[in-house]
Amino acid sequence: MTVAEVDFGTHAARAVLMLLLLGITVSAMAMTIQALRRGNRGGGRV
Question: With b meaning 16 or more CB within 10 Å and e meaning fewer, what string describes 9-20?
Answer without folding.
Answer: eeeeeeeeeeee
